[in-house]
Design goal:
By secondary structure, the protein is α+β, with helices and mostly antiparallel strands. The protein has helices at residues 33-40, 45-53, 80-85, 92-96, 117-124, 143-155, 162-173, 182-191, 197-208, 213-220, 226-239, 246-274, 279-294, 297-310, and strands at 2-6, 54-55, 61-62, 99-104, 107-112, 132-135, 175-176, 312-313. The longest helix has 29 residues, at 246-274. It is globular and about 60 Å long. Bound molecules: iron/sulfur cluster.
């Protein structure tokens, strides 16, 4: 079995109380059965808290407290379960987040999710571009992995403009990009479930942006274009090869293209309003996009489906 990770994967560590958007706030965390069983048998004081703060139904989960905080997140934003029982006692989701694992024929691909601000910094900040580290013997050929490797190669051809790289990706997939205006994207994203006010505010950037400022923004970002490249590579790495069929894989490639375009347009609107757009602002945009779209199955699949309906196919 091959194991694949991006080169930054093992550099991740949670920034704990320094995190501005703690993942223990606002998410209802399901507890795997094995851990739930262990939690039932804990006898120390924390055992009583576990019994009282977990919904012990078909799918056990922590009962969120005030302001949607996990009941074990203390006032210093540290986890009382780790403090009392150690890191190994965490349930699978808490232990693994923000890591993801895609099981593909003969290989497991792991990565970090963009919705975590510490992970986003690693993913977007790779100045030399993302590199995959592969260990173990290749067990089988996989057409979709070969195709994806070619897409990575194209996305990382820095001697080409983004438009040219995009065209090459589309021609590898033998599809045409549907023309979606920023007004259309605004209406579409606005129609999806929105989890935070911050995201709604960011969506209005798609309306307020001025077309004539896009070139000025491209010039301003010319030494930071690797941020968009890294974003596109991340989306493709996470979503492309595990698509159930080629039609969906093509829609997911378009998702990577439009995901980058949305983030770019929002960035250009911030730039035209303030004359600047920092790396921190970029991280906040991608983190929000990921939390609101990538980490909501409903929204993510609505996005894929919208692109599938509009995708102009060749003879894939
Ligand atoms: S979002 Fe990331 S950095 Fe913040 S608490 Fe969660 S794992 Fe840690």
């Amino acid at each position: 079995m091959q194991k694949v990770v991006p080169s930054y994967y093992n550099s991740f560590s949670c920034i704990k109380e320094k995190c501005k958007h703690n993942c223990c706030i606002g998410w209802e965390i399901d507890i795997d059965r094995e851990t739930a069983q262990k939690y039932r048998n804990v006898s120390e004081e924390i055992g009583e808290r576990l019994k009282a703060n977990i919904a012990w139904d078909f799918s056990p989960h922590f009962i969120l407290g005030e302001k949607e905080r996990c009941p074990f997140l203390n006032e210093k934003n540290l986890c009382d379960i780790i403090i009392s029982l150690g890191e190994k006692s965490l349930c699978e989701i808490c232990r693994e987040h923000p890591r993801f694992h895609n099981e593909l024929p003969g290989r497991i691909e792991s990565g970090l999710g963009l919705c975590c601000e510490a992970a986003a910094e690693l993913i977007i900040g790779q100045k030399e571009g993302a590199v995959l580290e592969i260990s173990g013997k290749k067990e089988c050929e996989d057409e979709i992995i070969d195709l994806r490797d070619k897409i990575f190669e194209v996305l990382q051809k820095r001697e080409l403009s983004f438009e040219k790289r995009e065209q090459e990706v589309l021609s590898l997939l033998k599809i045409k990009k549907p023309e979606l205006t920023s007004d259309f994207l605004f209406d579409f994203l606005f129609s999806l479930e929105r989890l935070s006010e911050e995201w709604t505010e960011k969506l209005w950037l798609l309306k307020s942006r001025k077309k004539e400022n896009v070139n000025a923004f491209s010039e301003y970002m010319k030494d930071r274009l690797f941020e968009y490249e890294n974003l596109a590579v991340y989306f493709i790495y996470r979503h492309f090869a595990n698509a159930p069929d080629f039609e969906e894989a093509a829609a997911r490639a378009l998702f990577a293209i439009y995901g980058c375009e949305i983030i770019f347009l929002m960035g250009s609107a911030v730039y035209s309003e303030t004359g600047a757009f920092t790396f921190e602002q970029q991280l906040e945009l991608v983190r929000l996009f990921s939390s609101e779209i990538e980490y909501s199955d409903e929204n993510l699949y609505a996005f894929f489906d919208m692109l599938k309906e509009r995708e102009i196919s060749g003879e894939f």
